[in-house]
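This section describes the prediction task in plain terms. A model, or a person checking by hand, is given the sequence of a single protein chain and must write out its three-dimensional structure as a string of tokens. No templates, partner chains or ligands are provided. The sample shown here is typical of the held-out split.
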Amino acid sequence: MYDFAYQTPSAVADAVAALAADPEAKALAGGQTFIPVLKQRLNKPSVIVDLAKVGLTGITVTPTSVTIGAMTTHWDVAHSEDVKKAIPGLASLAGAIGDNQVRHRGTIGGSLANNDPSACYPAAVLALGATITTTTREIAADDYFQGMFTTALGPDELIVSVTFPIPEKMHYEKFRNPASRYAMVGVCVAKGPHGVRVAVTGAGQNGVFRHTAMEEALAKNWSADALKDIVTPADGLNGDIHGSAEYRAHLVGVMARRAVIAAG
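The expected answer:
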């Protein structure tokens, strides 16, 4: 690692001030991606602002929504009885992220701020039409994701919480890399206040995206059969040693049909 200053603010305002004071400062949430990046010397921050003591944890459920604090861990989301009751598919998604160690350290806010193209949470946020609340504003899911590792967040803007509308149906299925367990392809299907939405992660070169052809088909007929003839173009999809773009295109259809069946 490179040398850097290390700050542990105890309030959100102090963390924001530290980030605003230095354009090379970076925030640290769970560190499941950021720390490996530091070890590989792919990032050289002048200051690391650790968010561990600023709060931003907890889950609040109303009759219409689930709001999750940005520093809430994947483990807490997966094991929350409130989340299991309100949006069981979201609890299931969180319980399949990485391994047990990652789930105890990784946070929903850190995942969304990083916006890894194979991360699971972005699919749920986009499919459910969630709202990301930051230190300065509210951002709709459709406006938040702007490409691989790119979001609408400003340099000194922190995620405070994420609010998910409670859907009628929702489920997420992913085809996991057997070693890292990241999503080679993950598909989240939802039917709720924002209508029928289908979001795909792991496959697109520009990160998570909505699959409009599947949305239109499911809006007419919510069944796996409605998707059987939809072909996902391989253009613009990822290809690597683990699977070609054509293979991922095939997996999008398979995961989507499984997700619809599981959603009921």
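For orientation: The two ends are 48 Å apart (CA to CA).
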